[in-house]
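REVIEWER CHECKLIST
Item 1: Sequence provided? yes
Item 2: Single chain? yes
Item 3: Sequence as submitted:
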Amino acid sequence: MIRLLLPILLVSLLASCGSDHKQHSDQTVFRYNEASGISSLDPAFARGQADIWACNQLFNGLVQLNDQLEVEPCIARSWDISEDGKTYVFHLRGDVRFHDHAVFPNGRGRIVKASDFVYSFNRLLDPSTASPGTWVFNKVERNADGVPAFSAPSDTTLIIRLSDPFPPFPGLLANQYCSVVPHEAIEKFGKDFRKNPVGTGPFRFSTWEERTALIYLKNEHYFEEENGERLPFVDAVSISFLSDRQSAFLEFVKGNLDFISGIDASYKDELLTRGGQLREKYRDQFTMETGPYLNTEYMGFFVGNESKTSVTGDPRIRQAINYGFDRERMIMYLRNKIGIPGIYGMVPPGLPSTDTAGFKGYTYRPDLTAQLLKEAGFPGGKGLPEIVMSTTKEYQDLCEFMQGQLKESGIRIKLEVNQGAAHRELVAKQELAFFRGSWIADYPDAENYLSLFYSPNHAPAGPNYTHFSDASFDSLYTIAGKTVNDSIRYDLYRQMDQLIMDESPVVVLYYDQVIRLYQKNISGLGMNAMNLLNVKKVRKK
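Item 4: Structure as written out by the authors:
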């Protein structure tokens, strides 16, 4: 049904786009599949990757990230930061329009003003919106009346005041939650804005048959250019919703999709060699690119006060487990070398603060596992109680690999496999002693990872699911949060990451990688460690 419906919808829509468009036979459509579905096109709810990708084509914010994850201007031409690091003054472009839509007089999208950002940010924080993204403005100061310190002294000037310095703040503003939306559309559609989006992005919403097809058309009035040519370069974006990833892969092989991201277990051996290379039969058909992904996969120990009677409350046992399995072999045989073995810290490669030289993480050292077990009073694992490891079906093979190798050192592991949603709930409630977890960066700064170990962030109040507490770590974290100088702050980050590895509240398994496959006639897709999809510079021959 999807394959039949999409061409019919596209031909109809492209043919009716008006005289500004070429004939539909010459028009280009970028096609990809979203197996997990899309829940909302309202950026206030852009939580998961599927929704983030969809919203990124429709909306803009003050700033954006380039492929090196550097913060660049977007609707804001430039910005100034006060000497104390608390006040940000953004200078907006005066030529950005909302998409043409019936909510505006004569259907013509109006110019974006600084007051639109004040409205959008306050809407995000409004409890009645119930956005999961309110945390992005946790550092924003509240005025005496409790109103967040956003102000627009002119149409092109926006001021944001923070309660404390927070150097990662500009990168945080690149998040889709911080997109600008028009009050006219929100007032008209209310909660139905999720399926009637009006933004400023390179593409404008056309039609959405939920779980069947979503189509965007080129925004002819988009404000960005590349080498004097107005973006975007393709005429439409078509998103299908095949839930079976192997079926989507077959559609890609047949040329019915232009792009897929990631490698599913159902076809990884068909596609890749054991060494992670694209198999020869596909090399002339499409291109594969890989790069760092700000996603750390790990096993976490609950180390709160309640864990002191548990065997894993002893850091020597946690360290013994860290040394007790071969991450290199695990990645080679179970993931076809997709990913970087987790032999460094919690902070993944791909961030400017990461420096692996001289960093002491964990490699496969069964001799040190034996030594640590002996020091802890369990020589050869004798007398060591069985340790329950909780995971999900998706990671069962990795955990079974660990289980087998740890057994050789006398560490007995019992696997508990949970459903994904149930597993996440148990972790959030601190009901698992040794659990699988992952952390994908919300913004490109090591602070995002280190916040998982800050004492005031103990779950459920924050993301510290291990309940790790250390006064030295907390002190360094507080100092880093107020340090504007990047080189000094990065050094503090590395000290914190090393402290975490020394205390071992986690077992880092691997750092994921972005893998992108696209047809040979596609260019300009780009690659970034946030795995953010940007279609605006894509060309299709």
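Item 5: Key structural point noted by reviewer: The first strand starts at residue 29 and ends at 33.
Item 6: Recommendation: ____
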